[in-house]
Amino acid sequence: MGKLDIRNLRKVFEDDGGSIVAVDDLNIDIEDGEFLIFVGPSGCGKSTTLRCIAGLESATSGQIILDDTDITNKPPTDRDIAMVFQNYALYPHMTARDNIGFGLKMSTDMEKDEIRERVEQTAEMMGIEDLLDKKPGELSGGQQQRVALGRAIVREPSVFLMDEPLSNLDAKLRTTMRTELQDLQQQLGITTIYVTHDQTEAMTMGDRIAILNDGELQQLGTPLECYYEPTNRFVAGFIGSPSMNFFEVEYADGSLIHETFRYDLSRETSEELSVREGPLTLGVRPESIELASAGDTNAIEVPVVVTEPMGETTYVYVDIGDQQYTVTVGGDRIVEPGSTLHVVFPEDKMHLFDPDTGESLK
Ligand code: ATP
C-alpha cells in the first residue's frame, strides 16, 4: 500500500538574512498507486516538499502520514520511500550491480543469493542486464538513470519520489524514458510523486498535477482540469505552452473594453457578470484565438511582428496596444511579419479573473 497524506506541511529555513518559508501549509492526499506531478517555478518549494516526505529535511510543522502511520519524524531509512535524483547520485566506485543492490544489502537481512536474483530481475525490467558489471563512469546518462531507477525499484517501496529524473537527458531520450517510466509506474502500481519543470511531462505523465507557487498549493487536479478550469491567473499562465494571453479590461454595459478593442459579450455571459462592473483580467490561450470571418463585429485587427513555424502550428507574435501577444495558427497558413491579422476571441474559451486576487471568475 502507499496512501500518502500531507497535512499542513510547513518548512521554514532560517539563515542570516531572516527566514524563508519554502513550504506553506501544504495539504495533499495522494491515493495508493497514484502518479502525482509537482510543478511550479524555480524556488516554489517542490524539492523541499519532496525532501520532507523522504525525511532528508525535517518539517517545521505539519504531518506526513503513510498508510495511517505518522512518518513525520522517522529517519529516511524507516520510511519505505525511495527517491530518484536528477543527478542519479550513484556510487562511482561501484558497479551497476552493486549500486542497485546496495540498499538491500545495507537495510535488510536478505541473503546474498536473493539480493543477486532481485537485482537481476530489476535489471531485466530496466533493460540493463548487459551493463551490470560496468561502473557509472562507463555508462551514458540514460543508462545511469536506468541504474538509479533500478536501485529505487529493487527495494519495492510503498512510494517513489522523483526529482526531475529526466532533466539531464537529451530531448529524444527524454521522450523515450518518459513513456517507459509511465509504463513502469503503471505496471508496478507504486504511488509516485514526480517533480518537473517540463510542461509536456506535467501534462502527459501524471494522474493529477499539484501546481505550487511561493510554497503554496495553487491547484490540485487532473492535467485537463488545470488546463481548462484554472482556479486562478497564476495557474492559467503557468499551464499551457505558449502561455495564456492576459488583457486588462473594464467590464461595462455588456462589453469588455480594452484600450484598443471592445468585445460585446453574449447576454448569458453579461448576466453572469452583471454584478462585476469595473476592471477585470481577460485571459485567452494562443490556441483558442481564431481568425475572424468577414463582418464579425468583435474582430480585432492586429499587426504581425514575428512568426515562429513549429511544423504543425505556427506561433504568431502580434502587437495589441503596447504589449506583445501570441496567436497559434495552422502550420500550413502563410503569415508574414509586417502583415495584419483579423482575430476573434471565442467567448466560450475566454477566462476572466479578478484583477486584485487573480481568482478565476469564468
Ligand atoms: P527548483 O525548481 O529551482 O529546484 P524548487 O521549487 O524545488 O526549485 P526548493 O529547492 O524547494 O524549490 O526551494 C524553495 C525555497 O527554499 C527557495 O527560496 C530556496 O532558496 C529555499 N531553500 C531551499 N533549501 C534551502 C536551504 N537548505 N537553506 C535555506 N533556504 C533553502
UniProtKB/TrEMBL annotation:
PROSITE patterns assigned to the protein according to its UniProt record, in alphabetical order: ABC_TRANSPORTER_1 (PS00211), ABC_TRANSPORTER_2 (PS50893)
InterPro entries tied to this protein: AAA+_ATPase (IPR003593), ABC_transporter-like_ATP-bd (IPR003439), ABC_transporter-like_CS (IPR017871), ABC_transpr_MalK-like (IPR015855), ABC_transpr_MalK/UgpC-like (IPR047641), Mo/tungstate-bd_C_term_dom (IPR008995), NA-bd_OB-fold (IPR012340), P-loop_NTPase (IPR027417)
GO biological process, one term: carbohydrate transport
Pfam families reported in the protein's UniProt record: ABC_tran, TOBE_2
Signal peptide interval: none
Enzymatic reactions: D-xylose(out) + ATP + H2O = D-xylose(in) + ADP + phosphate + H(+); L-arabinose(out) + ATP + H2O = L-arabinose(in) + ADP + phosphate + H(+)
EC number per UniProt: 7.5.2.13
Location(s) in or outside the cell: Cell membrane
Assigned keywords, A-Z: ATP-binding, Cell membrane, Membrane, Nucleotide-binding, Plasmid, Translocase, Transport
ABC transporter domain residues: 4-239
GO annotations of cellular component type: ATP-binding cassette (ABC) transporter complex, substrate-binding subunit-containing
GO molecular function, one term: ATP binding
Membrane association type: Peripheral membrane protein
Record note on quaternary structure: The complex is composed of two ATP-binding proteins (XacJ and XacK), two transmembrane proteins (XacH and XacI) and a solute-binding protein (XacG).
Homology family: Belongs to the ABC transporter superfamily. Carbohydrate uptake transporter-1 (CUT1) (TC 3.A.1.1) family.
Its job: Part of the ABC transporter complex XacGHIJK involved in the uptake of xylose and arabinose. Responsible for energy coupling to the transport system.
PANTHER family (alphabetical): MALTODEXTRIN IMPORT ATP-BINDING PROTEIN MSMX, TREHALOSE IMPORT ATP-BINDING PROTEIN SUGC
Cross-referenced NCBIfam families: PRK11650.1 (NF008653)
Name the UniProt record assigns to this protein: ABC-type D-xylose/L-arabinose transporter
